[in-house]
Design brief:
histidine biosynthesis; binds NADPH dihydro-nicotinamide-adenine-dinucleotide phosphate; five-stranded parallel beta sheet; 2 domains; 290 residues; Rossmann fold; one-carbon metabolism; three-stranded parallel beta sheet; alpha/beta; globular; methenyltetrahydrofolate cyclohydrolase activity
């Protein structure tokens, strides 16, 4: 794989974090309050703990004050909702993020809907998803698809318009918003999922393939049109040669030689997701200062 084909999400993310940091420094120098993010983690899921740690570290790097709320796995839904009421009312908190997945006894939709839409930096509140649907400028857009879009804009520029984008996966947090964003960019969009017929043939038509499934190396070389741009959202922990390893939903080694550009796992979509969280936090802050 040459440098030209590798979409270096880590490097792009560092640039975004740097930019946000600069803007935060200017705000603070001008006497404005410091942007604040509250991160709520319920339970001890090891992957979630890593994600939360990385998010908090990046906040620090950008000068955003972050507060972590770690709640035990047996936390009652009503207690979590109570915490969200407090955070919604707290003027020092401009962004609120509840790390998913939540324990089974807690209703995820109920919790996401309890976050004030203007503080909903994950963009999972139906109000923000609705704003995204109608193309309202003040939508807080889910971080992972937003990161995908930024990478696509940097890779293809204005040539993104008119391209056939195939999104594999239809979750509310990745697949659906990724398709809406691509549509907004004037792409032709196809969504496929576990019930799709002829999924390989559909993927092979893609100029841009966005894969968010959660199945290690599902997408093989013969699913990909030569010259396609491939964004691999998947993060799968697998064991290879007795060692734990992270792999994407795309078989990188065989797809990279035929793609015109591809994101690696790790170091692709993951860091961009966190950079976009900071971007959303600053956007939420600016909206609340007005
Ligand atoms: P979900 O499990 O919510 O959704 C997975 C989607 O993939 C579903 O729509 C499902 O279809 C579809 N699917 C499952 N199996 C197949 C198959 N064999 N063929 C076609 N489609 C299939 O996952 P998420 O969207 O939350 O996450 C997807 C992946 O992205 C995971 O690996 C996750 O870890 C990763 N991720 C990475 C992030 C990052 O920052 N890089 C952030 C968020 C997620 P159906 O609807 O029919 O069940």
């Amino acid at each position: 794989v040459t440098d030209a084909t590798l979409i270096d999400g880590k490097a792009i993310a560092n640039e975004v974090v740097e930019e946000i940091g600069q803007q935060v420094r200017e705000l603070v120098a001008a006497g404005q309050p410091i942007p604040g993010l509250a991160v709520v983690l319920v339970g001890e899921d090891p992957a979630s703990q890593v994600y939360v740690r990385n998010k908090l570290l990046k906040c620090q790097q950008a000068g955003i004050v972050s507060r972590e709320y770690r709640l035990p796995v047996e936390t009652m839904e009503s207690d979590l909702l109570g915490l969200l009421v407090d955070l919604n009312d707290d003027p020092d908190v401009h962004g609120i993020l509840v790390q998913l997945p939540l324990p089974k006894h807690i209703d995820e939709q109920k919790v996401l809907q309890a976050i004030a839409p203007e503080k909903d930096v994950d963009g999972f509140h139906p109000e923000n998803l609705g704003r995204l649907l109608v193309g309202a400028p003040d939508a807080l857009v889910p971080c992972t698809p937003l990161g995908c879009l930024i990478m696509l804009r940097r890779t293809l520029g204005d040539a993104l318009a008119g391209k056939h984008v195939v999104v594999v996966g239809r979750s509310n947090i990745v697949g659906k918003p990724a398709a809406l964003l691509a549509l907004q960019q004037h792409c032709t969009v196809t969504m496929v999922h576990s019930r799709s017929e002829n999924i390989e043939a559909l993927c092979r038509q893609a100029d841009v393939l966005i894969v968010a499934v959660g199945r290690p190396e599902l997408v093989r070389a013969d699913w990909v049109k030569p010259g396609a741009v491939v964004l691999d959202v998947g993060i799968n922990r697998v064991e290879r040669d007795g060692k734990a390893k992270l792999v994407g939903d795309v078989a990188f080694d065989e797809v990279a030689p035929i793609a015109s550009a591809i994101t690696p796992v790790p170091g692709g979509v993951g860091p961009m997701t966190i950079a976009c969280l900071l971007r959303n936090t600053l956007q939420a802050y600016q909206r609340q200062q007005r």
